[in-house]
């Protein structure tokens, strides 16, 4: 299984989730805001139209009252009626003239007394109202005739259109309100016939219950994005920024490793594990004769992390196999072409998971192949602390590795319980004397005896010995005299970055005592 795959899948789902959250403030607020605004607009237009209707009804009530008073005089003598006609003009608000008709002809007028001109009933809506752009007296001033009929006679009160326009103006706020009588309409500033100007998508109409007219208004619902930007630009920006920061925070939170294993997986995907090399020398010979590859974690925030802080968890999770594979591939890509000393031993720590996982043999074949060019030998260091059960498969694997020219050494020898069993049953080529025993040389008699015994046992079994943790000249001399084949420790060199190791090998003269 590729340990990186689940991580990529998670990243994608985290991104989707974060985008969803980023869109949430905008998506939750804007439709509600626009809906509320539309409701408010509709309510305010309804209110305007209702108020318009009330005002026009009120004006017409005055004309109706005047016409009602004059109607009994219709058909009678004009001389007798003219005073009453003029009186209504004087006392009735909004009424600018009054006339009496016999049939379709005006025969008496408040303006000129006895007269004769045609005012056909068919021009009136429901025989009662007519809206005009003007008349002979004031051709450019709209007016409205209000007519009451009795038999063939009629009385008409004329309302000055400017009163109506003032009333319409008064109720027109953002949206214009119009009066409609039949095909004729009157707006706050205009008069017309036929279709009303600027018909919008939404229309509000109220019909008077008492007179044959209606008041109407219409408006367009603006495109939501244009409306939002022109009316709520700061809010839109705030919502978008809020969403983006919430989404980004969520993405960051989701991306944080949920567990230490997740953090290791993230680090593996980012190639944060690298190999440091600690040189190994042979007593009496110049130059580095080997090296141990030791893993370091170059953490982006924490800096360089020691292996004992993360290797145990990497081993538990099985990630150690892929970590070792990547580290060794990177190390060998640089080491393979180096002028290494003859019989150079490159040690690498191998975990139990790698032995069990099945890929160890093919990894070793690849690594040994790369090293072959430089004449170096690969040594697998297996720690006693983490040994596998000895099965026929494990025995066969050790034999195949031996045939491949890959050496196996028991690391931390003497600290576990099964050292001797491994020596007996597995094809092992060497022992690594644990640094705790080396540290006791010269000061702790028991440690000195153990080191002596291990060296003696190794010599008898024909095994190569490496002593690790050599920190002093005294330890170096003691182990050299004892015949230990390889020495490793701070006295010789500390583990160093791969590039430094390569540079120093290229410069030559790496070790001289
Ligand atoms: N499975 C894997 N285990 C690994 C890998 N890389 C390292 N390790 C194991 O981690 C443990 C700690 O390693 P590290 O901190 O690198 O310490 C090594 C040396 O730096 C240290 N050393 C060497 N010389 C001296 C010395 O003179 N004094 C002193 N105090 N310490 C010294 O010893 C460690 C080497 O140990 P060993 O491997 O037993 O030779 C350690 O158990 C590593 O095995 C890895 O890639 N895989």
Automatic annotation (TrEMBL):
Residue spans crossing the bilayer: none
Residue ranges constituting the EAL domain according to the UniProt record: 257-509
Membrane topology reported for the UniProt record: Multi-pass membrane protein
EC class: hydrolase
Reaction equation(s) it catalyzes: 3',3'-c-di-GMP + H2O = 5'-phosphoguanylyl(3'->5')guanosine + H(+)
Compartments it resides in: Cell membrane
EC number: 3.1.4.52
Chief site of localization: membrane
Keywords: c-di-GMP, Cell membrane, Hydrolase, Membrane, Transmembrane, Transmembrane helix
CDD domains assigned to the protein according to its UniProt record, in alphabetical order: EAL
Matches recorded under PANTHER family: CYCLIC DI-GMP PHOSPHODIESTERASE PDEF, CYCLIC DI-GMP PHOSPHODIESTERASE PDEL
Protein name from the UniProt record: cyclic-guanylate-specific phosphodiesterase
């Amino acid at each position: 299984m590729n340990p990186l795959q689940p991580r990529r899948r998670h990243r994608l789902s985290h991104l989707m989730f974060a985008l969803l959250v980023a869109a949430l403030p905008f998506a939750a607020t804007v439709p509600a805001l626009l809906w509320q605004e539309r409701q408010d607009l509709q309510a305010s237009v309804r209110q305007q139209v209702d108020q318009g209707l009330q005002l026009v009804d009120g004006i017409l009530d005055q004309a109706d009252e005047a016409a009602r008073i004059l109607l009994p005089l219709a058909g009678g003598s004009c001389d007798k009626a003219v005073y009453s006609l003029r009186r209504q003009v004087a006392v009735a608000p909004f009424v600018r003239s009054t006339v009496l008709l016999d049939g379709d002809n005006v025969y008496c007028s408040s303006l000129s007394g006895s007269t004769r001109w045609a005012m056909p009933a068919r021009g009136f809506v429901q025989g009662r109202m007519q809206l005009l752009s003007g008349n002979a007296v004031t051709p450019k001033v709209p007016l409205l005739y209000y007519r009451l009929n009795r038999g063939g006679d009629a009385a008409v009160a004329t309302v000055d259109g400017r009163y109506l326009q003032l009333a319409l103006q008064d109720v027109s706020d953002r949206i214009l309100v119009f009066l409609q009588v039949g095909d004729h309409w009157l707006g706050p500033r205009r008069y017309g016939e036929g279709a009303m100007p600027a018909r919008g998508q939404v229309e509000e109409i109220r019909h008077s219950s008492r007179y044959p007219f209606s008041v109407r208004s219409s408006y367009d619902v603006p495109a939501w994005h244009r409306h939002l930007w022109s009316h709520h630009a700061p809010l839109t920006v705030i919502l978008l920024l809020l969403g983006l920061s919430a989404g980004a925070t969520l993405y960051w939170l989701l991306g944080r490793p949920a567990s230490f294993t997740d953090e290791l997986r993230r680090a593996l995907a980012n190639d944060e594990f690298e190999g440091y090399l600690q040189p190994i020398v042979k007593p009496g010979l110049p130059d580095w004769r080997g090296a141990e590859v030791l893993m370091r974690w170059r953490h982006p925030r924490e800096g360089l992390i020691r292996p004992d802080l993360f290797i145990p968890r990497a081993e538990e999770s099985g990630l150690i196999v892929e970590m070792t594979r990547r580290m060794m591939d990177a190390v060998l890509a640089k080491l393979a072409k180096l002028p290494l000393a003859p019989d150079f031993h490159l040690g690498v720590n191998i975990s139990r998971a790698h032995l069990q996982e099945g890929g160890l043999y093919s990894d070793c074949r690849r690594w040994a192949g790369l090293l072959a060019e430089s004449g170096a030998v690969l040594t697998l260091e297996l720690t006693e602390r983490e040994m596998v059960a000895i099965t026929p498969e494990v025995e066969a694997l050790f034999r195949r590795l031996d045939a491949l020219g890959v050496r196996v050494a028991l690391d931390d020898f003497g600290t576990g319980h099964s050292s001797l069993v491994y020596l007996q049953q597995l094809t092992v080529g060497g022992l690594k004397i644990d640094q705790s025993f080396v540290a006791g040389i010269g000061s702790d008699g028991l440690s000195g005896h153990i080191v002596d015994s291990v060296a003696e046992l190794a010599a008898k079994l024909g095994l190569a010995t490496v002593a690790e943790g050599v920190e002093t000249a005294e330890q170096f001399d003691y182990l050299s005299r004892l015949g230990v084949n390889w020495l490793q420790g701070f006295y010789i060199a500390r583990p160093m970055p791969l590039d430094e190791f390569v540079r120093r090998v290229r410069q030559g003269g790496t070790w001289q005592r």
